[in-house]
């Protein structure tokens, strides 16, 4: 079969998740991702409990969670050059080992609070480098077509599922062992992830030659990435919707309390958005063709936050869950964005662009959570979520227009995608 025929076939029909899992290297990346995600979630639960036990302060316990978001911008800007100037496998394995080294001292009895928080920051600094390198490596393993899009989708589905399972496992684990012993599980998952990536993926050369110091190279790469109008518009479209989408999760506890839903209701409110996201991605990945995913991406991103407006009516638990499920399903727009970002970013900048994408995503979500809390103090929880839906929809529409306006493809390509 010719390359042209193969490409046409991939454009006309979904590749399917099973075809992605049939790639041996991807299976190693997938298994490593699952292990490290579970380990990180257990660490977050255990560390929050440990900090609360040491201080008795809800604020300090919340700070331990916040430190999982805020330092992302440091690693994503100052260390992004690592993703392109070193072989990807070496970077991935090295990041896992650094994370294991950061967690291990947390397990020592008597480790002071300042050390625990500093090590938590260390994990967050390394994370965007790892995530960006892995995302760029997926394009090497799966190509830059539909298999890449479905591979990214499968990793996101795994992350959402790991959140649902991991918090439960973390809670059960802490009923039988101390928080410090629970952190040993995280050390083991990072080491297992490093072994899988070292043995399950092949060595590839660095994408770009080193030029100057790491920080200088990283900042220069960030400037190059953001200087391109198309890439900048795509990154903003990745970042902006999640910044508003986190509002219901950030405010789930006070909203459940207002409804009198108890701990069960709180758990359901926390799970609804991830469940909707998984369902939407599975449907789009398994049933829609690549052309269709690209065609619906911009319209879908413009409406995905609209269900939040229903909070203005102060709905009960059942209706709130339905609104969150529908909004989460709208996240299927990311499959179309994935195709554009891997196609339009130059290969020599791909690692830095993906690292910047990850850092910005986490930072915007952290800021969004903080702003949701401020808004809730001013207008109440329901008003804050509804406001996030209204303001977020306007921002999404403006971002979608910017992406459409920077489409550089020729007329034939636009005809294929329906744009």
How many H/I helical runs?
Answer: 21
Spans where pLDDT lies below 50 across 5 or more residues: 1-13, 410-419
State the distance separating the first and last CA atoms: 30 Å
Secondary-structure-based class equals mainly alpha
| Whole-number mean pLDDT | 85
Strand content: under 5%
- How many independent structural domains? 2
The CATH superfamily of the largest domain bears the name: MFS general substrate transporter like domains
Helical content class:
over 70%
- Kindly provide the name of the CATH class of the largest domain: Mainly Alpha
Q: Got a strand count?
A: 0
> What radius of gyration results from the CA coordinates?
21 Å
Query: Biggest β-sheet: count, sense, barrel?
Result: none
Shape by Cα distribution: globular
CATH architecture classification name of the largest domain:
Up-down Bundle
* CATH topology annotation of the largest domain: Growth Hormone, Chain: A
């Amino acid at each position: 079969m010719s390359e042209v025929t193969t490409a046409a076939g991939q454009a006309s029909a979904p590749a399917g998740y099973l075809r992605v899992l049939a790639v041996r290297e991807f299976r190693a990346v997938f298994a490593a991702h699952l292990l490290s995600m579970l380990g990180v979630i257990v660490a977050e639960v255990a560390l929050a409990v440990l900090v609360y036990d040491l201080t008795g302060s809800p604020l300090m316990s919340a700070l331990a969670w916040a430190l999982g978001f805020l330092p992302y911008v440091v690693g994503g800007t100052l260390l992004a050059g690592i993703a392109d100037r070193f072989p990807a496998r070496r970077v991935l394995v090295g990041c896992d080992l650094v994370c294991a080294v950061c967690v291990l001292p947390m397990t020592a009895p008597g480790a002071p609070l300042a050390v625990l928080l500093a090590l938590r920051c260390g994990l967050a600094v390394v994370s965007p480098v790892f995530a960006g390198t892995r995302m760029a490596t997926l394009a090497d393993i799966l190509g830059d077509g539909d298999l890449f899009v479905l591979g990214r989708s499968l990793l996101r589905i795994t992350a959402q599922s790991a959140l649902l399972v991991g918090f439960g496992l973390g809670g059960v684990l802490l009923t039988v062992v101390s928080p410090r012993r629970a952190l040993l599980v995280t050390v083991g998952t990072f080491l297992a992830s490093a072994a899988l990536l070292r043995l399950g993926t092949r060595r590839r050369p660095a994408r770009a030659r080193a030029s100057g110091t790491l920080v200088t190279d990283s900042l220069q790469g960030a400037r190059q990435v953001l200087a391109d109008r198309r890439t900048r518009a795509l990154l903003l479209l990745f970042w902006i919707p999640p910044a508003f989408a986190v509002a219901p999760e950030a405010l789930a506890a006070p909203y459940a309390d207002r409804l009198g839903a108890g701990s069960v209701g709180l758990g359901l409110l926390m799970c609804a958005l991830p469940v909707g996201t998984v369902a939407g991605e599975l449907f789009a990945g398994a049933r829609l063709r690549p052309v269709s995913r690209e065609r619906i991406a911009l319209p879908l991103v413009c409406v995905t936050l609209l269900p939040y407006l229903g909070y203005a009516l102060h709905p009960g638990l059942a209706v709130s869950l339905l609104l969150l499920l529908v909004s989460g399903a709208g996240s299927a727009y990311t499959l179309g964005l994935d195709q554009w970002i891997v196609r339009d970013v130059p290969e020599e900048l791909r690692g830095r662009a993906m690292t910047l994408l990850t850092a910005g995503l986490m930072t915007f979500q952290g800021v969004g959570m903080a702003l949701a809390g401020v808004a809730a103090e001013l207008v109440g929880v329901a008003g804050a979520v509804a406001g996030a839906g209204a303001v977020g929809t306007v921002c999404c529409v403006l971002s979608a227009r910017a992406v459409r306006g920077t489409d550089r493809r020729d007329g034939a390509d636009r005809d294929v995608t329906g744009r």
